[in-house]
Amino acid sequence: MTEKQKSEARSRKQEVRSKIRFRLLPLAFCLLSLFFLLTAGCKKKEEEKSLPSVSEIIIKINDREITRGEFQDTFKKLFIEDEAAAEIKDEELRNLKMALVNQFLEEELLLEEAKKVALNVDADELSRELEEIKREYAGDAFEPTILSRYGSMEKWKEELKKKLLIKKVIDKAITSKLTVKENDARKYYKEHIADYKVEEQIRALMIVVKTEDEANQIRERLKKGENFAKLAEEVSLGPEGKKGGDLGFFSKGIMPKEFEDVVFSLPVNKLSQVVKTAYGYHIFRVEEKRGAKDLKFSEVKNQIINKLKKEKSDAEFQVWMQELKQRARIEVKEELL
User: Fold this and answer.
1) What does the buried/exposed string (b/e) look like for 91-117 if buried means 16 or more CB atoms within 10 Å of the residue's CB?
2) Residue 282 · residue 275 · CB < 8 Å
3) I need a labelling partner for 71 at 20 to 30 A (CA). Which of 3, 18, 169, 234 fits?
4) Are 295 and 196 in contact (CB under 8 A)?
């Protein structure tokens, strides 16, 4: 075979090898893609298997079982939504979750105690409490707020009923048995006399408007005898204007310094000059002054007794609750919270 023939043969072999490699590349690519798809699918299935189901029981308290779904729903409702949770440090998030676990434990154990002593909440009690809560909401905000948090009024009423029942059982087991003697209250008063000092207070009226010219015109009208409260209702920009400009009683450190520097130096029933602040132009009149004084024991006796009773009640509750927990069958899967 000549050199030329040998060269042509080598060329044909290289061409065949190139064609084979070219044909094998798509196959290799397909096999590689298939491998990644299969491994990714397996990984996804493994991850799905590793995530606990919302129906998985993560807390057991005697015969009561709480699922992961119920726990998560309550956590979002009471503490934070998913978006906010992402911004909280792991340790803080865990502390919040353990606080909720403790809430579930205490609530269930107290409801069991209420059942043992046949306590109940009747329709009238529930209705009265509902009306009391309604008064805390402005306008029509009550129902939308409840619905957004609980989903339905019925669910909220069930929660409210539980809270009333828990209060009843605590009152029966602890609070109703506690007493605080007057001598103990008097002793506390003497040891904490500094807590019952009242600083100088004044009650003042205020009118605030946008411009200095307007304030000067109003001050002239007041000097001529126009009623301060009525004029405040007509022209004042502040929310207290609806109440005749009445700021109520306050001591130093409560109002802006610009207010205090003026009103605490004013005699009763005397008009201030026009005072400029970041809020506008003000006119003040002091209605009444109360000097600093020590509150008498008789004035704070019931307040102190209630304070001491609450402290006793809190301490007794912790001891009682610890006993209930020790007697209960409790299981918590912390890793699944």
Assistant:
1) eebeebbeebbeebbbbbbbbbbbeee
2) yes
3) 169
4) yes
Q: 251-280, pLDDT tens digit by residue? A: 998 899 989 999 999 999 999 999 999 999
State both tokens at 183: 């001598």
Whole-angstrom distance, CA of residue 244 vs CA of residue 332:
58
Cα(287)–Cα(269) distance, integer angstroms: 6
Dihedral of the alpha carbons of 205, 211, 213, 216, in degrees to the nearest 10: 10
Helix (H, G, I), strand (E, B) or coil at 286: strand
- Residue 104: closest CA among 78, 83, 126, 127: 78
DSSP state letter for 271: B
Q: How far is residue 232's CA from residue 139's CA, in Å, rounded to a whole number?
A: 25
CB 245 within 8 A of CB 206: yes
Residue linked to tokens 């899967």: 333
Q: What percent of the chain has pLDDT over 90?
A: 66
Helix (H, G, I), strand (E, B) or coil at 267: coil
Q: Which of 204, 201, 237, 190 is nearest to 218 (CA)?
A: 237
DSSP structure class, residue 251: E
Assigned token pair, 37: 């798809």
- What residue type is assigned to position 117 of the chain? V
Exposed, middle or buried by CB within 10 Å (0-12, 13-18, 19+), for 282? buried
The pTM score is 0.63
